[in-house]
Amino acid sequence: MQRNTNAANYNPVQQLSNESCLVVGLKPQSLKPTYFQQMHDQSLAAVVSTIEHLTTESMFASGWILVLAPVHQLTKQLLEQCQISTQRILLISQRQISNFDNLMRDALTCSTCSAVVSFLPSDSELLDDYEYLATKYQTPLINHGVIAQNNVEQERPLAKVATH
């Protein structure tokens, strides 16, 4: 049986830049990145930048930074490669969540989360409710959601306390 040598063309090592820790995903080394790959890379870099900001700001010095259902292949190892401390970061994947709404409401209203990063569609009807809870309980909520009409990711700081 002959082995597939095409797998050798893929580079599993994440390429990171020192400035913004731009992440380049798995792709053939010989091909130029496609438009969608570039959009994914920019989107992932924005998420990593947000998490880096949250871990370095003094107002977020205590409590968990909860990252709920990231749409990217975001791991603690990737964040550590970007030299981001992961000691206070909780990454919860979509498959680990049985009831997203309850988890989001609990995270925003408990005192153990210093910030919540979500990936809801920007036109989700629940964002207004979550924004209200984030403001009421002083828990910054940053949504890296996708605009449903054209699938472009947009960072939306939901709570007034989450500006950066």
CATH architecture of the domain at 50-162: 3-Layer(aba) Sandwich
Give me the CATH fold name of the domain at 50-162: Rossmann fold
Number of strands: 5
Radius of gyration from the alpha-carbon trace, in angstroms: 17 Å
Compressed to H and E, one letter per element, the order equals: HEHEHEHEE
Strand order of the largest sheet: 2-1-3-4-5
Shape verdict: globular
Helix content: 25-40%
The tally of helices reads: 4
What about the largest sheet?
5 strands, mixed
Decide which structural class fits the backbone. Answer: alpha/beta
* CATH secondary-structure class of the domain at 50-162: Alpha Beta
User: Kindly state the mean pLDDT as a whole number?
Assistant: 75
Cα end-to-end separation: 55 Å
Question: Low-confidence stretches at least 5 residues in length (pLDDT < 50)?
Answer: 1-30, 149-153, 158-164
> Could you state the CATH homologous superfamily of the domain at 50-162?
P-loop containing nucleotide triphosphate hydrolases
Percent of residues in beta strands = 15-25%
Write the layout of secondary structure elements.
Blueprint (H helix, E strand, L loop, with lengths): L34 H22 L7 E5 L7 H6 L7 E4 L7 H10 L3 E6 L7 H11 L4 E7 L4 E6 L7
Parallel strand pairs: 1-2, 1-3, 3-4
Antiparallel strand pairs: 4-5
